[in-house]
Amino acid sequence: MTQIIDGKAISAQIKDELKGKVAEMKEQGIEICLAVIQVGNDPASTVYVGKKKKACEYIGIKSLAYELPEETGEEELLELIGKLNGRKDVNGILVQLPLPKHIAEEKVLAAIEPVKDVDGFHVQNVGSLCVGKKGFVSCTPAGIIQLLKRYHIEIEGKECVVIGRSNIVGKPMALLLLQENGTVTVTHSRTKNLKEVTSRADILVVAIGKPKMITAEYVKEGAVVIDVGIHRNADNKLCGDVDYESVAPKCSAITPVPGGVGPMTIAMLMYNCVESVALQQ
Ligand code: NDP
Predict the structure, then answer these.
(1) Is 146 a catalytic residue?
(2) With 90 as the cut, is the pLDDT of residue 191 above it?
(3) Which residue lies with its CA nearest to atom 35 of ligand 1?
(4) CB neighbours of 71 closer than 8 A, spacing ≥ 6?
């Protein structure tokens, strides 16, 4: 029978563990603070920012909200980041993406102090991950590793195929699977014979950004399938990059959408906020 990987339950477990840790830190006089910056009012971003604030509240992390208008200039945003970088009472800085087109995302992400970059997007943190040094790891792939580990799914020696090579999901995912001693293949839009490659996977991580593209014929019998995609269909229902109905019966384990990878991203952001204290020391 296919095991449904319950990201909601695992994320709740992680948040509860962190809540305990934060309470202990408070007793030692350590307070954690996350600054969340949103530029403009993209509805999806507003939902994500709201969820992040709620998670902070639950765990006992102080959150500072900076809601800036759409027309905010790049310099103004960089200035705010500079100020937050300098504040000893701020442990984490998060800039909600996407940013309005007139602001260079790369420049903004590079401006965040690597020790406060709780999203793990700064090149220094990406580099640390690449060479196996301590640093912040991008939350979505870190969450996927937690799901696999907490479901006792072995990675070592397994054929792991990642579909997608974005900087925030595909590439760090591949690096983390490699760190866990998986045999990793990364595929993308120029990959030839995608089905052939994905059919080799014991663990298939799908981050394409194309609703329900991965059907049963891409998947090996008994594979573990992790669906990173999030889409809203015409009926306003959520779905992933994987065609769950056709794929689920073929796998040994699968993440649903919603309730799979999504909740893990926020749990791991909270994990990074707690870790920031040690990294900053
Ligand atoms: P991107 O659009 O940045 O990357 C998509 C990747 O898929 C690219 O590397 C692209 O290849 C590859 N790709 C596109 N079409 C094909 C194809 N036909 N065959 C093979 N590869 C293809 O997306 P993200 O990585 O940012 O996100 C992926 C999905 O995950 C999205 O649905 C997003 O909404 C979701 N997401 C969910 C999160 C969560 O918390 N659950 C967090 C982040 C993202 P190429 O590089 O060649 O263009």
Answers:
(1) no
(2) yes
(3) 229
(4) 100
Contact 265, 52 (CB under 8 A): no
Tell me the per-residue pLDDT of 97-125, one tens digit each, with 9 for 90 and over: 999 999 999 999 999 999 999 999 999 99
**What token pair was written down for 226?**
């992790």
- Burial readout 36-72 (b: 16 or more C-beta within 10 A, e: otherwise): bbbbbebeebeebbeebbebbeebbbebbebebeeeb
Structurally, at CATH architecture level, domain 29-114 sits in 3-Layer(aba) Sandwich (3.40)
Give, for ligand 1, the residue of 167, 173, 188 to mutate: max count of ligand atoms closer than 8 Å to Cβ.
Answer: 188
Rounded average pLDDT over 181-208: 98
What's the average model confidence in pLDDT over 154-164? 98
Judge contact between 135 and 124, C-beta under 8 A: yes
The CATH 3.40.50.10860 domain(s) of the chain lie at 29-114
* Nearest one of 76, 65, 128, 81 to 275, comparing CA atoms: 128
Q: What is the CA radius of gyration of the chain?
A: 19
Containing 7, the helix (H) or strand (E) segment is: helix 7-27
Whole-model pTM: value is 0.97
Q: How many Å apart are CA 30 and CA 275, to the nearest integer?
A: 12
Which architecture characterizes domain 139-262 according to CATH? Answer: 3-Layer(aba) Sandwich (3.40)
